[in-house]
Amino acid sequence: MKHLPCLLLAAVLAIPAHAAEPDDCIAIIGTGSVGGALGPRFAGLGERIVYGSRTPDEERVRNLVARTGARATAVAPAGAAAACGTIVLAVPWSAVEATIRSFGALDGKLIIDVTNPLGVRNGVEVAAPIEAGSMGELVQSLAPGAHVVKAFNTVYYTVMAHPATAGGPVSVLISGDDAGSKARVARLAAGIGFEPVDVGPLRTARYTEAMALLLVSRLVSGQRPFDFQLHPWPVKQAE
């Protein structure tokens, strides 16, 4: 817990203990760079990982399962989502809607949305307009009975895998409407070496997704990339 900023630590500890108990497993939907970075890190916290992959028997996926640990498995995405109480959505943004719809009812589950509606076209970073306002809000509209939390989307996958390479503290910005779900995500983030920062309700995902675009723009242009650290004011500022 040493990585939690004091204000968020107090908020997390105020949540009843049962709201932050580990689920039976975490479903990592997607076995690309992001899913492959977060799965082993969460497994290191004692979480059981079930990867959701369209090709669970592929050698690349089998190697990821082996690297994650003895308790890890890989099945089809819908099977992983059905098995676990926590779902990490780590698929390309263009596949989000079809993926969520294929899962059926997700009532009561925690969905950690790591996606960003952006890409690179002709060497320039571009963002896709999302009618719901953000990918996080779109996921919530597709799974109204779930608790959607936007997190980890402003962290590059190499830093997810090895936070120490950032050379200093890195914030994981957390947007969501359910306090218990945000507390669960904060504990996961802190456990793997990040500073969780609650930035507000789910609609604030609109702002963190824009921050991700800023990070991608640095990478695309060949500039030195950077990580984000939000530093809370130590005292209330004078008006």
What does this structure look like?
The chain is α/β, with parallel strands linked by helices and 239 residues long. The chain has a single domain (6-220), classed as Rossmann fold, CATH 3.40.50. It is 36% helix and 18% strand. It has nine helices and ten strands. It has helices at 6-13, 33-43, 59-68, 77-83, 96-103, 135-142, 157-161, 179-191, 205-220, and strands at 26-29, 49-52, 73-75, 86-89, 110-113, 118-121, 124-127, 147-150, 171-176, 195-200. The chain has an eight-stranded mixed β-sheet with strand order 3-2-1-4-5-8-9-10, sandwiched between helices. Strands 6-7 form a two-stranded antiparallel ribbon. It is globular. The two termini are 33 Å apart. The model is unreliable at 1-7 and 9-22 (pLDDT under 50).
Record the SSE blueprint.
Blueprint (H helix, E strand, L loop, with lengths): L5 H8 L12 E4 L3 H11 L5 E4 L6 H10 L4 E3 L1 H7 L2 E4 L6 H8 L6 E4 L4 E4 L2 E4 L7 H8 L4 E4 L6 H5 L9 E6 L2 H13 L3 E6 L4 H16 L19
Parallel strand pairs: 1-2, 1-4, 2-3, 4-5, 5-8, 9-10
Antiparallel strand pairs: 6-7, 8-9
> What's the gyration radius in Å?
17 Å
**DSSP helix fraction:** 25-40%
Could you give me the name of the CATH homologous superfamily? NAD(P)-binding Rossmann-like Domain
* CATH level 1 class label: Alpha Beta
Gross geometry: globular
Structural class: alpha/beta
